[in-house]
């Protein structure tokens, strides 16, 4: 490795953007220089999670698809491994190929999934470049007009890039753009979505995930168009229908049925993804888990479950924090989302409130029991230090109570804790309990 290359790599490694910018201005510095493992400065910057540096390198012509790494890693793979969604997106936007595999046959999305960077997987799986959409904004062949009016490309691209597949959110995105929220525009967008869907299926490296997403978007846009034709309320009625919960528990029946219908209407029956989705959704009774939305979301974005993050009850956006002040059991992005949901949530809010209060009382009771157990254990430990390991009959009954209590407790708090069930003929010793309790 030459001296100049070494200097560039060190500067990139340290993340000194100013110095890197100066260096890249010199004529004997090559932006795509390689280190001894075949890594470019861009790969280093992506792996280290330095967004500013990546941006600078790309501006200076860094090759995002350079594939000289000794194990075939690309800059996109390093971005995925870093867990930085902004850098992953930047690489994709710069034209990174998503289907390149490394020496162990893994794509960037698979590498990111392997190390648990699921947000990056989502970004990769849902990337659809603006250039691919812009193709439809130019007349092709004998066409006099393009299939997609250029002014619609921006708002449509925003919907395509969204990783939130909640139909309420999609309708909100349509509604917020007056250009898009009219029947003719929606029909054109729908047609383009169907064409892309077809292309994804028929192209050589078939992309069923993207095809399913395009089809789903087309269905939602179609629904918007049919509501706009029938009603004068600018899609408010559609949002309401999608949010309306059934009386018993607030489960949004219309939304569930709509998403199931979208899946069923996927035009390519042989697609493996379609068969997988149908297998997961069909046996589930409407109202039970998993919902069609969660199955579809997992298939398309790779997001597993809706457990570890807070999602808005109305629109499904991640990162919602505002709780309903009465029941405290549902969360929203903001007041708009809450207001939108209130007409249906108000029917179950009180029940949810009672449920929460009951849970609160129970957890308070449990905490008291915990304290009691803690006290017993301390007493026992003291006794173990002072005397031999045998215990009296009264202590034994206390222990039995304790064991009983802990067994019930086990289910709630210490799922990993194994309690040895004692043989009636050989009563437990203090030590026996203490080691099994591990308190
Ligand atoms: Zn929301
Ligand atoms: Zn509430």
Question: What features would you describe in this structure?
Answer:
The structure is a single chain. With 439 residues, this protein is mostly helical. The chain folds into three domains: 3-127, Ankyrin repeat-containing domain (Serine Threonine Protein Phosphatase 5, Tetratricopeptide repeat), CATH 1.25.40; 131-308, no CATH class; 366-437, no CATH class. Helices cover 59% and strands 1% of the residues. The protein is built from 20 helices and two strands. Strand 1 and strand 2 form a beta hairpin. Helix 1 packs parallel to helix 3, helix 11 (167-175) crosses helix 13 and helix 16 (272-281) runs antiparallel to helix 17. 34% of the residues are buried. One zinc ion binds at residues 312, 314-315, 317, 320, 332-333, 337.
SSE diagram, text form:
Blueprint: H1 3-14, H2 17-24, H3 41-47, H4 51-59, H5 75-82, H6 85-93, H7 108-114, H8 118-125, H9 130-134, H10 150-161, H11 167-175, H12 183-202, H13 208-230, H14 236-243, H15 253-264, H16 272-281, H17 292-301, E1 322-323, E2 331-332, H18 335-386, H19 393-412, H20 430-437
Antiparallel strand pairs: 1-2
Helix pairs in contact: 1-3, 2-4, 3-4, 3-5, 5-6, 5-7, 6-8, 7-8, 11-13, 11-14, 12-13, 16-17, 18-19
Bound molecules: zinc ion (2 copies).
The site of one zinc ion has 8 residues, from loops.
Main features:
single chain; zinc; 3 domains; Serine Threonine Protein Phosphatase 5, Tetratricopeptide repeat; globular; binds zinc ion; 439 residues; mainly alpha; 1% strand
